[in-house]
Give the backbone structure.
Amino acid sequence: MSAEAVRLGRLLAELMPDEPEVLGLLALMVLIEARRPARTDARGDLVRLADQDRTRWDRALIATGQDLLRRCLRRGQPGPYQLQAAINAVHSDAATAADTDWRQILDLYDHMAVLAPTPVVALHRAVAVAEVHGPAAALPLVDAIEGLDRHHVLHAVRGDLLRRLGRTDEAADALACAAALTGNAAERRFLLSRLPPTRRDQGSEPGPDRGRTSGSGRPAPHGTDR
């Protein structure tokens, strides 16, 4: 499926060679495809970006994606797809997870927040804030996001931040909620694997109110669904 998307992206770029966002979209798809071999293990379970075997990344595809990115950025008309491709290029440049330039990624998300101020962008920006300034700085940003209460990634991110802050019970609630909300079996297995063994049977329990609470422990106010 992803290879077919890249093929169609190349075709679109041939038809619209002067459109920088089309090149940006193609660069983004190529860079994502380059990491696909390392994204799952032999059992088909998800592998976090930080834990991926980077020797399995397709360096030729990464070089192609980075070249496409340079071509579109030279046009001086940055757009959301180009910025997403640039973020992926930063990840692709890092030899190890520890080498990732999170400050550059945060700068790129700051630009994204201006061009495309969506809840999803705010969530991903919060992840970058956590890497640069720590989970305590990022958690209030996540709790302030409206419209993603039925989005499992919000609860997964929140669970990880709470875990890093040592708030293990709240983290387990958030991760169980994320597992209940995702429709992807591999993602659900991954989320359940991060729960304490005594909580893994609770991943089937729905209800984002269990996973998202304010700092006082009360359910956080919900925004509009998205």
